[in-house]
Design brief:
352 residues; alpha/beta; Rossmann fold; 12 helices; 7-stranded parallel β-sheet; binds nicotinamide-adenine-dinucleotide
């Protein structure tokens, strides 16, 4: 079974990964229909889908996953065959500085509402809940361990705790009602269309503004970086062939600390290390994430195909070529990561 002649309801399709996924499916499956349900929060942006918005196979619904009526109306109107959920509050700094209630509404209540709608539908073939490796907590820098699907949840920040809660709801809906749900845990993504509060586009926009690159703590926190289209390829496989009730970890075996990312950005812009500025560390800052993705590789035949060095350079070049995109979202949403300045002030105060 493929996705042709099927209707895929995508929640959060106007964000970073969601918009890449919508474009990926439309380009790969000539007869697929996609309904994008998105609240258009600060990180959701229809500009991300400008090139496909007139496609007759694409439909947009402005809605909030925390609103069950809107979800039920969308299920009744479009009668989807597949569901995938990217809708989330995603920025850890915001959960600390702005508050976590919105994270609970979207990442927990939202998943509950989608699960209820899927449970009541007789038509859904698969629901993929897109989650994160952050639910597993932190690994020591000197350990060789990596997160497996069986690793116990140990979230350290409200973002990760709300994502873990959504994942547990999915588990319970499969155990109790056999709702055909698959949960994925992916590592850090990079690529085009990412809201520039996140590390890589944040650094690129800082370089464009002639500003230093602020790094939390000692900069040795390790993340396992994956190109966004490799994530999309894995999610497509999970929709088509993922086994209901199962969890799949997705990662590209590409561990790198923040200092290495900064160095690569500085090298590209031909700047020296004087452009690095260390700021006070963020509370609950996980030290290392590493993903064991052997299950999805073995069971679904997935493996990453984008090489980091090339895809990273192309990502920087995408932001350079799309400075109007950056300018438009800055105009709409204001300063990209105001929280970093709070940490900088904190560090200065501590030095006095
Ligand atoms: N970015 C990563 O590195 C990464 C890694 C692993 C997993 N994930 C997960 O992937 C998903 C997408 O992440 P992203 O980086 O694209 O996030 P993003 O912040 O770029 O996009 C989130 C999207 O969800 C929408 N949204 C937010 N609240 C909503 C609500 N209440 N109702 C409807 N829509 C709402 C936003 O408008 C936006 O379009 C998230 O669930 C995230 O947890 C992200």
């Amino acid at each position: 079974m493929g996705l042709n002649s099927k209707k895929v309801l995508v929640f959060g399709g106007a964000g970073f990964i969601g918009s890449n996924f919508v474009r990926f499916l439309l380009s790969k499956h000539p007869k697929v229909k996609i309904v994008n349900f998105d609240k258009l929060t600060y990180s959701g942006n229809l500009d991300n889908l400008k090139d496909v918005c007139k496609d007759k196979r694409y439909f947009f619904v402005k809605g909030d996953v925390a609103n069950s009526k809107q979800i039920n109306a969308t299920f009744s109107k479009y009668k989807p065959d597949f569901v995938i959920n990217f809708a989330a509050e995603t920025h850890v700094d915001r959960s600390i500085h702005v508050g976590s209630l919105e994270f609970v509404h979207t990442n927990v209540e939202g998943v509950f509402n989608i699960l209820e709608a899927v449970r009541q539908s007789t038509k859904i073939i698969k629901y993929v809940q897109v989650s994160t490796d952050e639910v597993y907590g932190s690994l020591a820098l000197n350990s060789r361990k990596s997160f497996k699907e069986t690793t116990t949840f140990a979230p350290n920040v409200p973002y990760a705790a709300t994502k873990a809660s959504g994942d547990l709801l999915c588990r319970s809906y499969f155990s109790t009602w056999k709702v055909p749900v698959v949960v994925t845990h992916c590592s850090n993504n990079y690529g085009p269309y990412q809201y520039p509060e996140k590390l890589i586009p944040f650094f690129i926009t800082r370089m464009l503004e002639g500003k230093k690159l602020p790094i939390y703590g000692d900069g040795k926190n390790v993340r396992d970086w994956i190109y966004v289209l490799d994530h999309c390829r894995a999610l497509e496989l999970c929709l088509l062939r993922g086994k209901s009730g199962e969890v799949y970890n997705i990662g590209a075996d590409n561990e790198m600390n923040n200092l290495e990312i900064v160095r690569r950005v500085l090298n590209y812009f031909k700047r020296n290390k004087l452009w690095i500025e260390f700021v006070a560390d963020r509370p609950g800052h996980d030290r290392r994430y590493a993903i064991d993705s052997s299950k999805i590789r073995k069971e679904l035949g997935w493996k990453p195909k984008y090489e980091f060095k090339k895809a990273f350079k192309e990502t920087i070049e995408w932001y350079l070529a799309n400075q109007k995109w950056i300018a438009r979202i800055r105009k709409k949403t204001g300063v990209f990561n105001p929280h970093i300045d709070l940490w900088r002030a904190h560090k200065l105060n501590n030095k006095k």
